[in-house]
Design a protein that fits this description.
Length: 260
């Protein structure tokens, strides 16, 4: 499909999060538009992963709210987020290392299961048709990510770059409308980064998936993002298109180390 950036579908309003006396996020507001690639950047400890954890309900902020497609949430939960079409990958790969690629991707279909436990146990009627449908979707993801050759390989035996691709595949198996990517290219070599960039752009372009990503590689961020929000010490110091952010004195200061 041809990508066209639409209206705001995710709006974060004055979000503040603290752990004990430590403030992780302070009065953060920004929005995400349908079909865009929205990057969150900042030095280590800036609050980027905390922000993703707020969006998908792992953390519940003390102040602020999340507005998702017009619905207001002061308390998001991982279940509500998944039901609303939000899926994510993790900075530290959270796959089942002893299971093969197909079975790991099938775990991404859990929220789509409609048949009851008895039907699933006997693989009967609706359960059988449903599982065949889920497997067909997983096979589509495998083809899309070009991992047919490792489909039966236990994930723990795969090199790091391919494990990151499988992690992306499990998130895609949910058929999300909003995909949260937590440092999808961390630890990759140049070739692996190029592949991951291509897949992210293709997910965004072909599926129309809205993407919110954290990434440290500034060349990648500036190349593939539509808009960038910049955090430093849990506060927002910049927000705009890549050119505007690149020229922002506060962002330059944070990244050149003047504030660190």
């Amino acid at each position: 499909m041809s990508r066209k950036i639409g209206e705001v579908i995710l709006d974060l309003k004055k979000v503040s999060l603290s752990f004990g006396g430590v403030k992780a996020l302070t009065d953060i507001s920004f929005d995400v538009r349908e079909h865009e690639i929205r990057a969150i950047i900042g030095p280590n400890g800036a609050g980027k992963s905390s922000m993703l954890n707020v969006i998908n309900g792992v953390y519940r902020p003390q102040e602020g709210e999340i507005i998702l497609r017009g619905q207001h949430f002061t308390k998001m939960s991982p279940y509500k987020a998944a039901r609303a079409g939000i899926s994510r990958t993790f900075q530290n790969i959270a796959l089942f290392k002893g299971m093969n690629v197909i079975d790991n991707l099938m775990t991404g279909r859990n929220m789509k299961i409609r048949s009851n436990l008895i039907q699933q146990a006997f693989w009967w009627g609706p359960a059988r048709r449903e599982e065949l449908g889920h497997r067909a979707k997983v096979e589509e993801v495998i083809d899309f990510l070009e991992i047919q050759h490792i489909r039966k390989t236990p994930v723990g035996r795969l090199p790091y770059g391919l494990q990151k691709r499988v992690d992306l595949g499990r998130a895609l198996a949910m058929e999300p409308s909003i995909l949260l990517l937590d440092e999808p290219m961390a630890g990759m070599n140049v070739e692996e980064k190029q592949d991951m960039c291509r897949f992210i752009l293709d997910v965004n372009d072909q599926f129309g998936t809205t993407i919110v990503l954290i990434e440290h590689d500034m060349a990648v961020v500036m190349d593939i993002s539509d808009r960038v929000v910049v955090l430093d010490y849990g506060k927002k110091i910049g927000d705009g298109d890549p050119d505007a952010v690149r020229a922002n004195p506060d962002v330059i200061s944070a990244y050149l180390g003047a504030s660190h």
